[in-house]
Specification:
Layout lengths: L1 E2 L2 E2 L12 E5 L5 H5 L3 E9 L2 E8 L2 E6 L5 H13 L4 E10 L9 E10 L13 E2 L2 H14 L3 E9 L2 H5 L7 H13 L4 E3 L2 H11 L2 E11 L13 H19 L1
Parallel strand pairs: 3-6, 3-7, 7-12, 8-10, 10-11
Antiparallel strand pairs: 1-2, 4-5, 5-6, 7-11, 8-9, 8-12
Length: 251
Amino acid sequence: MLIHGKQMHLQCTAEKIGRYVILPGDQGRCAAIAAFLQDACPVSSNREFNVWTGKLHGEMVTVCSTGIGGPSAAIALEELVECGADTFIRVGTCGGVDAAVLGGDVVVATAAVRQEGTSREYLPLEYPAAASYPVVRALADACEELGYRTHVGVIQSKDSFYGEIRPQVMPVAQQLQAQWAAWTAAGVLASEMESAALFTAGATLHVRCGTVLNVLWNDDSEEPDVPEHAAEHGIRAAVKAIETLIQQDRK
């Protein structure tokens, strides 16, 4: 939606946005991600949305923060698609759910449990929130080449951070704890807050979406202890994956 010639929330115009987009949650990470691009410069900053654009192998690549949660992530995706973008990689952090997923690991999502509200405004719950296979493969290959301890599979997206962290104090504690037990039993790898919305919105808009996550700790077995430079592995994997996708798309 354009207001005075610019996207309503991102406050940018189409000529400043690349086909390929990296989506961190934290706007404070945008400059650090843009540093991996050539000739990167800031485009706009409004609310939780901080936008930069640079180049990789001659192609325009944009970095856009989404804030926390599905609603703002979907707004960013919608407006970036209106600007011509068609390939998106979320770079974020998560807590491990499966016992094998530990702090310092990397998770590449193939799909997301839709335990949030935004995706319901796009598609019925029967429709899976699935990542785009070419993006998944490019991310998994990138992580392998970079030597990261990586897990590839289903993650969970939710709306309430503290509903996960301290469910026992919530009036719906029994429901939350039963759902968590189900995700654990099913082998869900990790928990975060944006991917289900991005995957379903991306499916609706017919664009490619994927997610790579840096694990901060395991929610059941570790104390919160954010590793230094926690986001860097995911950033490097996303950049490398976009390089691969650029080469594939040119063919």
